[in-house]
Amino acid sequence: TGRALAWPPAWRGRLVDKHSTGGVGDKVSLALAPALAACGCKVPMISGRGLGHTGGTLDKLEAVPGFHTSLSPEEMRSALERVGCCIVGQSEELAPADRVLYGLRDVTATVDSLPLITASILSKKAAEQLSALVLDVKFGAAALYPTQESARELAHSLVAVGEHLGIRTSAVLSRMDQPLGRCVGNSLEVLEALECLEGGGPPDLRELVTALGGLLLWQCGLAGGAEQGRARLGQALDDGSALCTFEAMLGAQGVPPDIAHHLCTGDSPQRRQLVGQASVQEELPAP
């Protein structure tokens, strides 16, 4: 349902996206979208909110003061022209039925329904009019699917439907037996994604960001192979271009320029002051 996005012919072949089936501490999209844009891709990412026990990319970004997740198709095009990426939610124009089904799944014990997962993810990707898509299909104790076999079945479904829609689609099976990175929680995950965008952060987060990004750069022809794509994406993280793109994306989606700048250039204490904090906090130090 809804409308499909329209893009300039010059962008054909470079429109890419990534989608995850969800896990705990999964902040890959926050780092991957701007890194891909820094490498020359256009990333019109339509993302989701928390579902079941999994965190939502939109919820995490809304920890940044002023960040707007509701953009019109025209505003999305403007953001892609100026920045190269945006991360938005469903709207009355873009996959409106999915927003209804998304809410129903959360209260009808159908969060892990394979057909509904396939429809939910690919309805948004079809609306984006993508050239290439990579899917991060997670399995393990903290994923929707506990076993690699069940995750593989979902991956086959997603790839088959994606290819049928005319999108070059691939899937990566990744283990989710523990949180990705070190942090769990909206504002904390934004801060950890910023570490990754600076060329640091937890090794497992960087590994997944570069692996998924490398595949996409290869699929859209901006790299000669997945390993070459991974190296190019890693360079964007290390040389600061991905972080600069993230700052520009924040500004394009409503974050005041001074907040966006200080969030991307400040030290850890300064950043913590800028993002949303819980009114009650209690430390649980390791013994």
Would you give an account of this structure?
The protein is mainly α and about 290 residues long. The protein has a single domain, classed as Nucleoside phosphorylase/phosphoribosyltransferase catalytic domain (Pyrimidine Nucleoside Phosphorylase, Chain A, domain 2). About 50% of the residues lie in helices and about 10% in strands. The protein is built from 12 helices and 5 strands. The protein has helices at about 30-40, 55-60, 75-80, 95-105, 115-130, 150-165, 185-195, 205-220, 225-240, 240-250, 255-265, 270-275, and strands spanning about 15-20, 45, 85-90, 130-140, 170-175. The strands form 2 sheets. A 3-stranded parallel β-sheet has the order 1-4-5, with helices on both faces. The protein has a two-stranded parallel sheet with strand order 2-3. Helix 1 (about 30-40) crosses helix 8 (about 205-220), helix 1 (about 30-40) crosses helix 10 and helix 8 crosses helix 9 (about 225-240). The longest helix has 17 residues, at about 150-165. The protein is globular and about 50 Å long. The termini are far apart. About 50% of the residues are buried. Homodimer. GO terms for molecular function: 1,4-alpha-oligoglucan phosphorylase activity.
